[in-house]
Design goal:
The chain has 14 helices and 16 strands. With about 475 residues, it is an alpha/beta fold. The protein folds into 2 domains: about 1-35 and about 240-285, no CATH class; about 40-225 and about 290-475, Alkaline Phosphatase, subunit A (3-Layer(aba) Sandwich), CATH 3.40.720.10. The radius of gyration is 23 Å and the shape is globular.
Length: about 475
């Protein structure tokens, strides 16, 4: 399915007006729920296993060598040069690109096998280890990008360059929304309290690119009102606000009929969504209805707005209220010179909330059709960044050649590990999964053929997976 264009003026006038009329009919109170939820008529292409996605993106890149991918060879060769046959000729960031010595660095944690699946998980992640039989670990992820922003952009949009629609925007475009009270796509960000790394959350990580901006992710803030200008100013009541929006909608529709700009239709829709969110968001963020047991499960930071734990709980509440794609981004994993101190802190802050989210969804009957994803934009080098003698400054550089993510629910086979890295945890040894394969698999679980969800822009049809991508069938139920 794709968006066709005639002449710019003809298409924007006719198609834009059609969208605007549908939005206006909802605005004026007509029963047009199906139209207002959007989506393409032929999507999903087949029966979906998942209805929604919660993506826990660990910005900065967790170290697979210390958390999931135990490699005794690194312990055996600790402090000695990693063989040129393994690392020779590979591209790294500027931080180790010119480093002459690349000594193997053993894990700084302890590993054990857990559950019936026997998954290897670090002792830094006890809560994740406890639910390992609910998870599918993909230990053969690889990417083409070696720096943070391009790597995250690649995962989220299918291209390392800004400007393409993000994954959540593609889902909003293809599937529409399940909720009339909340956005189809919500993004939230958090960072470690120590502010140990300087990762920036760029708006294009949840941008709509060349898709209509109605599909852009709505950013929930970590302090004050979750969404800017959601509260009415003094003296403005709901009735007056309703009348003002009705008048604005009529004026915008009149202009849309004349110029055919689809962004005017977006404005109509977004004004209406903002009005509804004035009632739905306060209820969404009111945690007084949560039990003490639930709050305790997410950890001591759950009541602090903007924390990772708080965002995980809000993600569950968004999921049960129909939000299609929830994108959590948490920075703090970029341990170049502080692996021995910061990795444990980062795991402590994120482990319990991540596991709690999976358990909470399962207890409420939502995990079956909610896909949960945990992972970074790449891994960390099996060799040391810096000198082996400077223990307090041990670190690992960016590593795109193999790393680990996990997935749960939404049609993913639980209690398994897929793929394998070599004995150094340096490269894919078996069943590699590229970024476009990963994206194709997500779309497949939502009932979408990744080759058929396209949008015509500047003379060609674009898709999330570009001209690549194969569904990773073995990880599917």
């Amino acid at each position: 399915m794709f968006q066709e264009h005639n002449t710019r003026r003809q298409l924007l006038t006719s198609a834009g007006a059609g969208v605007g009329l549908a939005a206006l009919s909802t605005l004026l109170g007509n029963d047009a729920a199906a139209e207002s939820r959007g989506g393409l008529p032929a999507v999903p292409h087949y029966a979906a296993k998942a209805k929604r996605v919660i993506y826990l993106l660990q910005n900065g890149a967790p170290s697979h060598c210390d958390l999931f991918d135990h490699k005794p060879m690194l312990t055996k060769m600790h402090g000695t040069q990693i063989p040129d046959s393994v690392a020779g000729g590979k591209r790294f960031s500027t931080m180790t690109g010119g480093q002459k010595e690349r000594p193997c660095l053993k894990e700084i944690t302890k590993f054990a096998r857990h559950g019936e699946s026997g998954a290897t998980v670090s002792n830094f992640l006890p809560d994740t280890a406890a639910i390992s039989d609910k998870l599918c670990f993909i230990k053969s992820m690889h990417t083409t990008q070696v720096n943070h922003a391009p790597a995250i952009t690649f995962f989220m949009t299918g291209d390392e360059r800004p400007g393409r629609p993000s994954l959540g925007s593609w889902l909003s475009y293809g599937l529409g929304s399940e909720s009339e009270e909340l956005p189809a796509f919500v993004a939230m960000t958090s960072r470690d309290k120590e502010a140990s790394c300087g990762q920036i959350f760029y708006d294009y990580y949840w941008g709509s690119g060349f898709l209509p901006t109605v599909h852009q992710g709505v950013k929930f803030r970590g302090s004050g009102d979750p969404v800017l200008y959601l509260s009415d100013p003094p003296g403005m009541n709901r009735g007056r606000r309703r009348g003002m929006l009705d008048d604005l909608a009529a004026l915008n529709q009149s202009q849309l009929d004349v110029v055919g700009d689809p962004e005017i239709a977006t404005r109509i829709k977004q004004y209406e969504m903002a009005y509804r969110m004035q009632a739905s968001v306060p209820e969404l963020t009111d945690l007084s209805t949560e039990t003490e047991a639930t709050l305790k499960m997410y950890g001591p930071d759950v009541q602090r707005k903007g924390s990772y734990a708080y965002n995980c709980l809000i993600a569950r509440r968004l999921a049960e209220r129909g939000t299609r794609f929830i994108q959590l981004m948490h920075a703090g994993w970029d341990q170049h010179r502080n692996l021995n101190s910061q990795l444990k802190i980062q795991c402590r802050d994120t482990d319990a909330p991540s596991a709690a989210l999976v358990k909470d969804l399962e207890e409420r009957g939502l995990l079956e059709d909610t896909l949960v994803i945990w992972g970074g934009e790449f891994g960390r080098t099996p060799f040391l960044q810096g000198k082996i003698s400077e223990t307090k400054q041990w670190g690992r550089d960016h590593h795109p050649y193999v790393f680990t993510i996990w997935m749960a629910g939404g049609g993913i086979k639980p209690g398994m590990s897929y793929g394998e890295s070599d004995e150094f945890g340096f490269s894919v040894a078996r069943d590699g999964v590229g970024v476009h394969d990963f994206q194709a698999t997500i779309l497949h679980l939502l009932g979408i053929d990744h080759e058929r969800l396209t949008y015509r822009y500047q003379g060609r049809r674009f898709r999330l997976t570009d001209v690549h991508g194969e569904v990773v069938e073995p990880v599917l139920v």
